[in-house]
Amino acid sequence: MNKLLVFLLVFLTFGKISKAQDTIFTIEGKRIVAQKIEINNDNGNYICYKINGKSKSINRNRIYAITDSTGKKIIFYTKIATSAENSFFYAKSIKKNDHLQKYYYQNVDGKNDSIDIKNVFSISDTNGIRKIYYSTFCLVNRELIFGKNIKIDKKEGKYFFQTALNHYKSLKIKDVYTITDSTYKILVFYNTIELINKKVVFAKQIIKIKYDSCYYQSIDGQLGKIKMADVFSISDTIGNVKFYYNSIVSLEGENIITKSFRKTGTSECFYGDLRGNEKEIDIDDIFSVRDTLGKETVYYKQDTLKGFYDSPEEMKQYVYGMVDAKKQYKAPFYTYVGAGVSLFAVTGIVTSGVGYLFWTPLIPVVYTGIILKSKPNVEQITNAIPEKLRTEKYFTGYITQVKRKRVNNAILGSVGGLFLGWIGFFAIDGL
Q1: pTM (2 decimals)?
Q2: Range 142-148 contact pairs with CB under 8 angstroms and sequence separation of 24 or more
Q3: What is the CATH architecture of 135-188?
Q4: pLDDT tens across 354-372, in order?
């Protein structure tokens, strides 16, 4: 960690760290914006920093990089992304053995380990240079598949490629939404039509938009038609997006699609919902409003008297973390398990005696309490978040919504299972 010591000592000498905001990137994927960074003289294994005047510390082995206020970035570890699990880890040093087809490395805790060359998706060195060894297929079902030596056979309508395990596989051309190659070049093959119910329709071609309908060619080559009243936005293959509704992003991470929006007075706002009804929303509940031209107007203001301690940029990261989690994190497991637990528990309790039926409502309470106390898989969630979005606030917002979704699904599943158990009992009892 000599590079870290040199970096910190230089900045402490010239007084830059104490006067400007710097950023700490941790190996857990978080980004910490600090007002001051300094070495803990009592324990050199820790770096002290301040946020909003409060002193905190972090083990220096957990720091991936530090960026100063001028944008200069010092990276302390090599970052290795694996192809098999779509995850990554950090190494103090790394060496390639072509004969054994392995990379030998020393991890952040100083232990020696190795990984097969075929399982490495990319390596980012301490100079910020990233070498990618696989291309990435993004399918229309949003699944990601890594491959190399890609060949296309238009006659068969397939892509043929080699996997990390050197197996040869194929994909139907029509199932591939994008391909990102080892130079970061992205090829987009379909237009996308996002509906107001959050569903996405992939189209080879947007034929025309006439009157109240959008005509398109589906990925199967069939002619399709969608009512424009159901279309929120249309994106083409070169990144242009056309919006057909306004949208309000609330501080609770809700993305409200609206026909109209108007602000009256200092705090009252009104919007027209999709049914044509006008509803009121307080301006303190709104982060931003985006119009049909894609222009976003931020209404959130930092105000400690109202409890709004975050800057607009920090709040944006937090809110959009919640918005993205709502789109991406489904957690059906907690619904199914909750339903199963309640159903089987009711069955077991009733067989012990009908009098115990009185206690069955406690089943959803206990199950939900267990889920509430349990912690999400942070590493898995971090890997699902694009690296450029992994700020501390975005991650906090994302995790907040993940916890809510887990609890809501636990309640839904366990209560549903409870009612099914009751219905089953009374149905059998009435026979």
Answers
A1: 0.63
A2: 144/86, 145/171, 146/83, 146/86, 146/121
A3: Roll (2.30)
A4: 566 777 888 888 889 998 8
What CATH code is assigned to 2-75?
A: 2.30.30.100
Q: Could you give the CA distance from residue 261 to residue 186 in angstroms, rounded to a whole number?
A: 36
Task: Classify 185 as helix, strand or coil.
Answer: coil
Q: Taking a C-beta distance cutoff of 8 angstroms, is the pair 139, 145 a contact?
A: yes
Q: 346: part of which helix (H) or strand (E)?
A: helix 332-352
What b-and-e string marks burial along 330-347, b requiring 16 or more CB atoms within 10 Å of the CB? ebeebbebbbebbbebbe
Among 274, 394, 421, smallest CA distance to 339 is for 421
CATH architecture of the domain with residue range 246-305: Roll (2.30)
Task: Please report, for the chain, the start and end positions of each structural domain, with discontinuous segments joined by +.
Answer: 2-75, 78-132, 135-188, 191-243, 246-305, 332-429
- Pairwise CA distance, residues 277 & 53, whole Å: 46
The encoded tokens of residue 266 equal 């200092």
- Which overall architecture, per CATH, does domain 78-132 show? Roll (2.30)
pLDDT tops 70 at residue 429: no
Instruction: Look up residue 148 and give its DSSP letter.
Output: E
* DSSP result, 62-101: GEEEEE-TTS-EEE-SEEEEESSSS-EEEEEEEEEETTTT
Residue (of 356, 374, 324, 368) closest to 421 by Cα position: 356
Identify which has the larger pLDDT, 36 or 238.
238
The sign one gets for the Cα dihedral 23, 24, 27, 29 is negative
Cβ(367)–Cβ(354) under 8 Å?
no
Q: Is the pLDDT of residue 60 over 90?
A: no
Residue pair 133/120 in contact by the 8 Å Cβ criterion: yes
pLDDT tier at 6 (50, 70, 90 boundaries)?
A: very low
**Ranges of H-type helices in 256-331:** 312-328
What is the pLDDT averaged over residues 375-392? 71
* Size of the chain in residues: 431
2-75 matches 78-132 in fold: yes
pLDDT tens for each residue of 153-190: 988 999 999 887 778 899 999 999 999 887 778 899 99
Q: Is 191-243 assigned to CATH 2.30.30? A: yes
- Going by the DSSP 8-state scheme, the letter that residue 303 receives in this structure is B
Average pLDDT over the chain, rounded to whole? 83
pLDDT digits (tens, 9 = 90+) for 326-344: 888 888 888 999 898 888 8
Burial class (CB in 10 A: 0-12, 13-18, 19+), 167: exposed
Which of the 8 DSSP states describes residue 127?
T
